[in-house]
Amino acid sequence: MKRVFTAGLAIVLAWSIGVADAGAETTKSKQQEKLKELQKNEKTKHTELGKAQIELNKLKKEIAPIEKKMAEYDAQLEQNNKDIIENEKLLQQQKAQLNKRVVHLYKTGEMGYMSQLVSAKSFSEFLARIEGIRLIVKTDSVLLQELNATAEAIQKSKKSTEQLRAKLQPLFAQSKAKVEEIEKKTKALDKELANIKHDEQVTEAAIKEQERLERIASQQYTGNYGTGRLMKPAAGTITSGYGYRWGRQHKGIDMDDDKGKKIVAADSGVVILAKSDPEGYGYYIVIKHSDGLSTLYGHMYRSTVRVSVGDRVRKGQWIADIGNNGRSTGSHLHFEVHLNGKAVNPMPYIT
Ligand SMILES: [Zn+2]
């Protein structure tokens, strides 16, 4: 009776541990998915941001010549205004002069040129008078011409002002539209930047959480994992051994096989790392075993990996497919054995 009860309890315990693990697993993979999504979003937003900045710079460049032209026209307008004010002053003076002249002519009776000529008592007097009249007429004529020129100059300036205003109007509209667009874009960029910053914070928090989970995963499983005797993790022939190769340390062994062929766990253990290293290992995973031993599997493609961090794996369990990812010139498995964090020759461990 007692034995039955104990066995039942053991089953219940095992079951509840299993359930708890399944829950943790779901949370972890959800976290990973969220992180992936966030990082993708961030990348997209950075691309958009770059594009928007290029557009903004283009607009700023486009507006510069318009504003230069506007400034030129403004300077001309100002000169016109100065000219008009000066000429109007001159015109007033000239008008006053002419008035004075008219008053003088009127007062001296010089208005009636003909009557003066007619009333000449002698021919010599007539000649003297006609000479005088000529002088008077000439002076008046010059005065009138000057006055006319001033009035014309004023008209010309006013017309030029009108033309300049007509030219400025569309430029002003253009510049206003561009300034508004720039303001709109700048605002949108600011908003986007704030979004990115927020996303980065969220991503960072997610990464921290992921790291925390990974730490827990690697610390939690301190039990006895594996025998310390490893099986060959892939079927292919070993084409490259451990040690110096082409002037550099080869930290593992290579097993050539076709892409898609199985990679299995060399020993039982727990997955403590699963990540991408595009310039090196490609997608790789690390499995922790007992007694400071861990194994690393490289050059896989993420899509073929069947385990994630925190997973407990059995010796011989299918964990991924052989790939050609990262710094790799043909499909093969790069396999490393680490003892207390340092790469060692895997061969003595493989039985
Ligand atoms: Zn290798």
UniProtKB/TrEMBL annotation:
Domain (Peptidoglycan hydrolase PcsB coiled-coil): residue spans on this chain: 87-156
Xref: PANTHER family: MUREIN HYDROLASE ACTIVATOR ENVC, PEPTIDASE-RELATED
Pfam families: CC_PcsB, Peptidase_M23
Signal sequence extent: 1-24
InterPro entries per the UniProt record, alphabetical: Cell_wall_metabolism_enzyme (IPR050570), Dup_hybrid_motif (IPR011055), M23ase_b-sheet_dom (IPR016047), PcsB_CC (IPR057309)
GO molecular function: metalloendopeptidase activity
CDD domains: M23_peptidase
Aminoacyl-tRNA synthetase as UniProt keyword: no
Keywords: Coiled coil, Signal
Organism: Shimazuella alba
Start and end residues of each M23ase beta-sheet core domain: 249-346
Top-level division of the source organism's lineage: Bacteria
Descriptive protein name: Peptidoglycan DD-metalloendopeptidase family protein
